[in-house]
Design brief:
By secondary structure, this protein is an alpha+beta fold. Helices cover 30% and strands 22% of the residues. β5 and β6 form a beta hairpin. The longest helix is centred in the middle third of the chain and has 15 residues. It is elongated.
């Protein structure tokens, strides 16, 4: 089994989590700097975006080395490992899987060598929706992948499959073929590249070091390495950075549709997206919640930590005292306990515990970021009542999540989304609250200070800005499904490959974590290293 992630999510059931974060990417071009160390600290700042695996690729100009493993950034890398990764350009990745299972092979960066001697390493935040189409092209062209089952590997294979072109020229051919959400950082022996899909669904920012450049998923990662923010990488833009400087090329016309859920949950509160500080946006969402759903109460408490800024805003607007009602244990990971029924019932005590003296005899407003299946809120309401709360009024700083995300967030399947099958009062009864209020979609949008037309709101309103493929050829395990279908045909002696599986797992399906590969550090270094032929 993979290591426990070491991060407290307030989900109670490790096998049935709530919305899982997008991945985090980081890239640096900085001669005379310790680029592996800078990447390590950048990934550390992005750890909240993915806790399944981490990896770093480094080049000294003569070859590219990738080191990756399952686990947290601090578990994967130690000082001797970082000291061995020498060079002037590096990229890094911290992963939560949205395409492909949680295996070592699917950890990133991915790496491929071309027949011309160039090596390409790539890290991806987001999720493509034409994965089956890309797999078909790879197969028809006779290209081979590295055994992984994620969309990132397909992109790396297609980039490396044009040895007659420079990496930059190959990218300008491949990137327009991709549909979905992608914020890429990639590299060859000498150059750092960054690219963002034409809709800019997932964030990507450019920063400046005294002697180099940095690209990262969030501005907080620039802060931690001492880089100043220059600007966002624009939707539809490809950036290349080498000894000649920085070059920018458009590969597609921009049609901005930034992810609205980044403002609710995914991004760090100290990040800035499209000029808007995330903490300030969340406080404003809380104020809007108080205006839309007032209630007489004695205390406003957050579900830590994601509900804290909105709870502050709710208290400020309502005039109700803000205080702590739930204490969080930050050292319990989602895979720490086996989910037997008894331990499921005890799980809340491992993760969150009430401050009885604060909540006893009080009418509480409990502020959280979202309701997906309702497991978390149901248990919290029950726990607070057991601790002596007179009333529990739940306030949610996002609208009901009624639709799955196919652009880089692993929600539950639509059938499992509580808001898909129940109205507001049904959800209230399901979680046991006295009252329940969600912020309105217009109220949430207003807090971002972005026009509605520049935001992806699909998980709230079902309007997907990027066309989804027909025939359900989409989902977290689409490539595993294709692989199983092809293998089955081969076993049966069927000479015709059928790349379309009869049934494709929906987004949000559970991973079979037991299939994760165990690899020693010495094996990892050898397995993940590609030198020039």
């Amino acid at each position: 089994m993979p290591r426990g992630d070491g991060r407290l999510s307030h989900d109670l059931d490790p096998q049935r989590p709530g919305p899982q974060d997008a991945c985090g990417v980081f890239g640096v071009w900085a001669p005379e700097e310790e680029v592996a160390n800078l990447t390590y600290f950048g990934l550390y700042a992005l750890q909240h975006r993915g806790q399944e695996a981490a990896g770093i690729a480094v080049s000294d100009g003569s070859g590219v080395v990738v080191y990756k493993d399952l686990g947290l950034v601090a578990q994967v890398f130690d000082e001797p490992t970082l000291a061995s990764l020498r060079g002037h350009v590096a990229i890094g990745h911290t992963r939560y899987s949205t395409t492909g299972g949680s295996t070592w092979e699917n950890a990133q960066p991915t790496i491929r060598a071309t027949s011309s001697g160039t090596t390409i390493a790539l890290a991806h935040n987001g999720n493509l929706v034409n994965t089956a189409e890309l797999q078909r092209e790879v197969t028809e062209r006779g290209l081979t992948t590295d055994g992984s089952t994620n969309d990132t590997s397909l992109v790396t294979t297609l980039l490396a499959g044009r040895p007659d072109l420079s990496v930059e020229a190959a990218a300008l051919e491949v990137l327009p073929q991709l549909r979905g959400a992608f914020s890429f950082v990639f590299m060859d022996e000498t150059t750092l590249y960054a690219a963002r899909d034409p809709h800019g669904v997932r964030p990507l920012v450019l920063g400046r070091l005294e002697r180099g450049w940095v690209v990262a998923s969030e501005t907080a990662a620039l802060d931690i390495v001492g880089a100043s923010v220059v600007r966002e990488v624009e939707p539809g833009e490809l950036i290349a950075i080498d000894a000649e400087g920085l070059r920018s090329t458009r590969f597609a016309a921009p049609e901005p549709k930034g992810c609205l859920f980044e403002y609710v949950y995914i991004a760090r509160p100290d990040a800035t997206i499209a000029g808007r500080n995330v903490h300030a946006a969340r406080v404003q969402i809380g104020r809007q919640l108080a205006r839309e759903h007032p209630v007489e109460a004695d205390l406003v408490i957050p579900v830590p930590e994601s509900g804290t800024p909105a709870a502050i805003g709710y208290a400020e607007e309502s005039g109700i005292t803000y205080g702590a009602g739930l204490m969080k244990n930050p050292y319990v990971g989602r895979t720490f306990i086996q989910p037997s029924q008894t331990l499921r019932q005890l799980g809340i005590r491992l993760k969150l515990n009430p401050l009885r003296q604060n909540v006893r005899g009080k009418r509480l407003v409990v502020v959280d970021d979202s309701i997906v299946r309702g497991n978390t809120q149901r248990a919290i309401v029950r726990m607070l009542r057991e601790a002596g709360a007179l009333e529990v009024h739940v306030r949610i700083s996002s609208p009901p999540v009624s639709w799955p995300c196919f652009y880089g967030i692993d929600f539950a399947t639509r059938a499992e989304l509580l808001a898909n099958g129940l109205d507001n009062d049904g959800i209230r009864r399901s979680i046991g609250a006295d009252t329940l209020g969600y912020v309105s979609l217009p109220g949430l949008i207003a807090a971002t200070e972005q026009p509605k037309t520049r935001l992806c709101r699909a998980c709230f309103d079902g309007e997907y800005p990027i066309e989804l493929p027909v025939g359900n050829l989409i989902g977290k395990h689409v490539l595993e499904g294709i692989g199983r279908r092809v293998a089955h045909n081969s076993d049966d002696g069927d000479s015709t490959e059928q790349l379309v599986p009869p049934l494709v797992a929906a987004a949000g399906a559970d991973d079979d974590l037991s299939s994760a590969r165990r690899t020693s550090r010495s094996e990892l270094k050898m397995s993940a290293t590609t030198n020039r032929p």
